[in-house]
Amino acid sequence: MQQAWWKGVPPIAFFDTNPMGRILNRFSADVGSNDDQLPQTLFDFTVILFIVIGAVFTTVITLPFVLIVLPPLVYYFIVVRRIFVSSTRELKRLEGLARSPIFSMMNEALSGIATIRANDATSYFTSKFELVHDSHTRAFFSYIACSRWVGFRMDAIAFLLMSFVCFLSVLFQMQGWFNIDPAILGLSISMLLQLASAFQWCIRQSAEIVNQMVSVERVLAYGKVESEAPLTLESDKLLDPSWPHEGAIDVKDLGVRYRPSLPLALDGASFSVPSGCRSNGPFSTMVDDTGEISSKDLRHRAFRRSSMRQLRSSSQENL
User: What membrane topology was assigned to this protein in its record (predicted)?
Assistant: First the structure.
C-alpha cells in the first residue's frame, strides 16, 4: 500500500483540498496502526481462537450438559459483537477524522513559530489546539467507553455461565443423574473459567480487527488518488520532430475548471490565434480543460493529458 503512495504523484489540486494535517495523519497514525497494532491484534485473535476451541472441546467431554447453555451463549455473544462493531467502526472513523486537525495545528505552529511569538499569539494558538484536542478526546473516549460496555456484558454472562454450571453439577450429583469425579469437576470448572475469559477476549479482538481495518480503508483511499500524467507519453512519439510548422491555434468551446468537482470557470470560449501573432493568456497548470484545441491536424482534449504539454510549458509566455 505504501509503495502505491510513493509511486503516485497527485495533482496540485489534491493538496489544495486536503490539509497537511490530514495527509500527515494518514502517513503516521494510520500507517502505524496497520504496521504495529493490526498484526498484533490478528495474532492474538488467532491464538485465543485455538484456546477457546480446546477449552470448549475439553469442557463438553467432561460436562456434556454444558451443551444446553452453550448455543444461546454463543448467540448472545454474536449479537453483542454485532452491536459493538456497528458502533465502534463509525467511532473509529470519527476518531481518525478528529485526529487530522491536531496534526494541522502542530504543523502550523512549527512552521510559523517565529510569527506566533512575534505577534504574541501563543495563548490564541494554545486555546485553539485545546479545542481540537478535546474534540479528538471525546471521540476516542466514546470508543474506549464502548469497549468497556462490551467487556462488562461479556464478563457478566461469563459469570452467569459459571454459576449455572456449578449449580447443575451439584444438582446432578445430589440427584444421582450424573456421577462426576471431583477431580474432573475441578478441571471442568477451571477450563470454564479459562473459556469464559478467553471467549470474551476472542470476541473483542475479532471486533477490534474490524475496527482497525478502518485505517486500512483510509490508506487504500489515498492509494487510489489519480496521479499526474507521466512526463513522456506514448502519443509524443506520433508527432513529427519538426512539428509545429507554424504557430496557428484554433480554440473551440473551451471550458476550464479548477477541479473536476467544481463548476466551469470558463465555459464555451472559442478563438483563433493566427500564425505569427503574439498572444498572452491565463493558461494555468492547475486547471481541468474541456473542449477542442487544434493546431493544423493535431487535436487534443485536456492540456495536461496531451502530447502538447511540453510544447505548452516551453512556449507558455508567448501564447
Answer: Multi-pass membrane protein
- The whole-angstrom separation of Cα 97 and Cα 262 is 23
pLDDT for position 137: 92
Q: Which residues of 180-201 are buried (b: 16+ CB within 10 A; e: fewer)?
A: eeeeebeebbebbebbbbbbbb
Domain boundaries, the chain: 2-223, 234-318
For domain 2-223, the question of CATH label 1.20.1560.10 is answered with yes
Decide if 161 contacts 189 (C-beta within 8 A). no
Q: Which helix (H) or strand (E) holds 73?
A: helix 70-111
Amino acid at the residue 170: V
- CB of 219 closer than 8 Å to CB of 31: yes
For 34-74, what is each residue's pLDDT tens digit? 888 888 889 989 988 888 888 788 777 877 777 777 788 87
Q: Which residues contact 144 (CB under 8 A, 6 or more apart)?
A: none
CA distance 70 to 72: 6
Which residues of the chain are modeled with pLDDT < 50? 285-287, 289, 292-307, 309, 313-319
Residue with cell 493566427: 274
Compute how many other C-beta atoms are within 10 angstroms of the C-beta atom of residue 65. Answer: 16
pTM: 0.63
